[in-house]
Every structure is written in C-alpha cells, then in structure tokens.
Write a structure and sequence with these properties.
The complex is a heterodimer of chains A (250) and B (270).
Chain A: E1 6-17, H1 25-34, H2 37-40, E2 46-58, E3 62-66, H3 73-80, E4 88-94, E5 97-100, H4 113-123, H5 128-142, H6 157-170, E6 175-179, H7 187-202, E7 206-210, H8 214-220, E8 223-228, E9 231-237, H9 238-249
Parallel strand pairs in A: 3-7, 3-8, 5-6, 6-7
Antiparallel strand pairs in A: 1-2, 1-4, 8-9
Helix pairs in contact in A: 4-5, 4-6, 5-6
Chain B: E1 3-5, H1 13-21, H2 23-37, H3 46-66, H4 71-93, H5 98-101, H6 103-106, H7 114-141, H8 153-177, H9 181-195, H10 202-207, H11 212-215, H12 218-232, H13 238-262, H14 266-269
Classes of the chains: A alpha/beta (250), B mainly alpha (270).
C-alpha cells in the first residue's frame, strides 16, 4: 500500500429537502398549471443534517463519533462512505472503504444467507472468485450455521447484524466505518466483534465509528468528535472530549 | 484504491462505463432476481415459457381467426411482437422502480448507482431470449424460411437495447422522485398496446385508412427494428432505421439531462 489513506472533509454541508418527499406528480403538475408555483407551495422544509464540517482523518487514526440522536453521526459516516454526496463543500476519501450502518439494509429477503453474502461481498468490491475463497470464513465468523441455508426473511435483527458485520469486516478494508453496530447483537457476538476490531486496528488503518457507549469510545479511540445538531462541538483527544462531554451533559 | 471526490463526481459517461465494467456484479444480481422470483415454485423459470406460450396460443388462435389471417404468417408475427413489446413495457413500468427497489443497497454501499439500472435490464433480456426461442419454434412449425438477412436483427437489437436503456434511465431517475410514475406508466403502456401494431398488422391499419396510428408512433419503429429482420430476413425499411436512430439520439439527450439534474439527489430522495 503505497498510497496514504486519508479522509478529508472541507466545509461539507448536507441538506435534506423534507418537503420533496410529500410532493406527488399530481400536485406538481397542478401547481405548474396554476402558474404561481413557488408562492402557493407550502414553505420548503429543509433539514440541515450537517453544517459546514471540516476535518481531516489521517492514516492509522481511530476516531469515535458521539452525540445525541439526530446529531449527524450517521450522516457524516455516509458522507465518508461516499454514499451521500455533500450538498455543499467537498469530501475526499483516499482508500478502499467498507461501511456498515446501524440498520443493516440491502438484503434480498427471499434469497438465502449464502446468496446474500455473495451479493454483499461483491458490492464491497470483491470479485466472485474472492467471495468464494472467503465465503466459508465469513460463514464461520457469523456463526449462523444452518440458518445460512434459509431465506434471510426468517432472520432476527441480531442475525442480520451478524451477517452484515461478518461480510463487511472480511474484506480487509482500508477504511472501516461502523455506525453503532458494536453494541448490537448478543454479548457473545459483541465480544467477538470487538476482537475483530482490535485485529483490524493493529493493521494501522482508518477506523471511524459512532457509539453511545462512552466506555466503547474510550476503549477504542484516541480521538473523539462530538457532534450536536450537525456541527462539531469538540474534536480532539478522546479523554479530554469525553471528560468535557460528561461535565456538560452530565 | 478509490478516491471519492464529491465535488468532481458530476455524473458523466465515465460512470456508465465504469459501472458496465462491474458486469459480474450486476449480472449476478439480475440472474438472482429471476431465480428468486421462482424460488419454491415447482416449475421454476419455465413459467416464463409457459406464460408466453399460453398468451400467444390464446391470442393467436382467436385474433388470427377474427382478422382472417393466415396462421403461418400471423403466429410468428404475433410471437415476436409480444416478446418485443414485453421488453419495452417492462423497462418502462418495472424500470420506474429500479432505484426504489435498490434503496437498501444504495444507502449501504458506495457503489456506482448505474449498476442497479444494468441489473434491472438483465431479467428483461432473459425473458426476451426465452421468447425468441418460442419465435423460432413457431417459424419452424410453419416451415418458414429464415435467411442470412435475419442477421440484421443484431444491429437492430443493439439499437433497441440502447433505446430501452435510455427509457429505463429516465423513468428510474424520475420514478424516485415521483412514486406515482410506475402506476401512470402502467396505464399509459396498456393504452399504447392497443395503438401499436402488435396484435394487428400495419396492412390492416392501412386498409382502413388508419395509417397515422402507426406512422406517428415511435414504439412502432422501435418494434420494427427487431421484428422486421426476423420476419423478412432483410434490412428494415430506411424510414424505420432513420426514425429509430433519431428517436435514440433524442432519448439519449433526455436521459443525459435527467441524469445530470437528478443523479446526485437520488440518495436523498429515496
């Protein structure tokens, strides 16, 4: 790996137009026919999920994100993953990203666990041959056993997490983004997942994850970014930020 | 090693090319889509064959009589017409939800979104190929001759594929924003079916002074670039070729504009 891994966000803003969701073809056409489109429309409701965030994460850093629900943790991870194009500013990510989000979606419900491993593996950048090479390893790690032969619609929430986590971490990514997945699943799997995180961190790549557990953040990160309403409150050394967080938020 | 630079990632032709290179992914997904549709059914994908054969059999026997058509000409004509039509209608109607059904993937994986459009095309091509088999069986049954000129179907089909892909690109993007679109297109395409020479022939329209019905219908030309070479073993008439090419360019431009305007917003609207 000659290339330096790096995440750099410059003035990144993300806006969601909430009004757009309730627009129908009918109302748009009717409005167009009536003429005065803009004025008749209900006020545009825009949610600023992120407001001009600038930060750099360099090779080997382990960064934790914290903040209340809706603070922008998931949004910032999705920008880092290249899923949300910033609506303003610029995001540059150098390195192969593997991400896993709180709600593991993107399963083919009627297909088996095996089929879903294949599809997810490919979407994470593996070739079919590489998927076949690792599929048993992934299956073993997930501990889903014979459930892998069943359609995933029969799975419980915890089993989805197991499957998704096993695939996402099996690809040996350079940048791993995890959104509140560490606390998920049963105790046994959580411990296993922690071990895998440690292995991953020893390879000196970039890890960014969000969590509500201050213990987890302290154990895994050297740097913590505290978000509130789409803005960075504090960004720095884990101990300092966590202490400040506890002091103010009690 | 991938670099995402969102400021410079304006949708471009490059995105379509790089997505096409990932053919193993979208091809796999498309084939899985077909398989999972028939999971746990006894007859499996042969239902595609049965469905088509049943429709063609029923419609062919009744309408052939109604229209006083010689069966050896009418049945192959009807077969290829229906097969081509179902390709057009799927890419417009089902295609309008191509991004919507891939929502889970789009929100989880930083993969070029265009692969979900290629993936959507795979089942249509599979169904088309099965239909083509029925067509050749029908031709053989009625001992119709197929000459080398039928090979014109290859460039014809390439153009046909491209136009349908442009259709799909447009409706998939717009369909994310306007969820009424699949329903709207569903009814429009049903109306269009009765206005396009699929079960009736061009000659029938001409005889009754209704030639305008097909002459101003782009879908007719779209069907003809595939149907004509297969039935007549010859290059389609020049006006068919020119109209199809022109329509293709036009749809290409519309698709380009739609992609440029909407591509970046897709993930936010989903």
């Amino acid at each position: 790996m000659t290339q330096e891994l790096k995440i750099s966000l410059r003035d990144v803003g993300v806006r969601f137009d909430v009004t757009a969701r309730h627009d129908s073809l009918k109302s748009t056409m009717l409005n167009a026919l009536r003429g005065r489109t803009r004025r008749d429309k209900p006020e545009r409701r825009i949610v600023h999920a992120l407001k001009s965030i600038s930060l750099d994460i360099d090779h080997g850093e382990r960064v934790g994100l914290m903040g209340l629900n809706g603070a922008g943790k998931s949004t910032i991870l999705k920008v880092m993953a290249g899923i949300y194009p910033p609506t303003s500013g610029e995001a540059r990510i150098d390195g192969h990203v593997s991400a896993m989000f709180e709600l593991a979606t993107g399963f083919e419900m009627t297909q088996t666990g095996w089929d879903n491993i294949r599809i997810r593996g490919m979407l994470l950048g593996l070739t079919p041959a590489q998927v076949e090479e690792r599929i048993h390893q992934i299956a073993e790690f997930s501990e889903l056993g014979e459930f892998l032969d069943y359609p995933v619609k029969t799975y419980s929430a915890g089993m989805f997490i197991r499957l998704a986590f096993s695939v996402s971490t099996a690809i040996n990514p350079e940048i791993l983004l995890l959104d509140e997945v560490m606390g998920a699943g049963d105790v046994q799997f959580a411990n296993k997942a922690k071990r895998r995180m440690h292995e991953f961190m020893e390879q000196g790549k970039i890890l960014v994850f969000s969590s509500h557990s201050l213990d987890m953040l302290e154990a895994f990160c050297e740097r913590v970014i505290w978000l509130r309403k789409g803005e960075i409150v504090l960004d720095g050394d884990a101990k300092g930020v966590l202490a400040e967080y506890q002091r103010t938020e009690g | 090693m991938i670099t995402y630079n969102s400021a410079s990632s304006k949708p471009s032709l490059g995105e379509f090319v790089s997505a096409a290179k990932l053919w193993r992914v979208w091809f796999h997904m498309g084939v899985q889509d077909v398989k999972s549709r028939f999971r746990n059914s006894v007859l499996g994908p042969s239902w595609i064959l049965i469905n088509l054969a049943a429709v063609i059999g029923a419609v062919g026997l009744i309408y052939g009589r109604l229209f006083h058509q010689p069966m050896n000409e009418f049945l192959p004509f009807l077969t290829i017409g229906i097969v081509v039509w179902s390709f057009i209608s799927s890419s417009l109607v089902e295609g309008a939800s191509a991004f919507v059904v891939a929502e889970g993937y789009i929100k989880q994986f930083p993969f070029p979104k265009i692969i979900y459009l290629y993936r959507a095309m795979v089942p249509y091509v599979i169904v088309f190929s099965i239909g083509l088999v029925i067509f050749f069986v029908a031709m053989a049954l009625y001992q119709r001759h197929i000459g080398w000129g039928a090979l014109w179907v290859i460039p014809g089909f390439a153009l046909f594929l491209l136009i349908n892909f442009f259709h799909l690109v447009i409706v998939a993007h717009v369909g994310v924003r306007f969820r009424d679109l699949p329903h709207l297109l569903g009814s429009l395409i049903q109306i269009a079916f009765y206005l396009t020479p699929v079960i009736f022939t061009v000659a029938m329209l001409k005889d009754r002074g209704l030639a305008f019905v097909y002459m101003f219908n782009p879908l007719y030309y779209l069907i003809e670039i595939v149907r004509y070479p297969l039935l007549n073993s010859a290059l389609p008439p020049v006006e068919v070729v020119y109209v199809s090419l022109g329509y293709c360019v036009f749809m290409g431009i519309v698709a380009f504009l739609v992609v440029r305007k909407m591509s970046q917003r897709i993930v936010y609207v989903l």
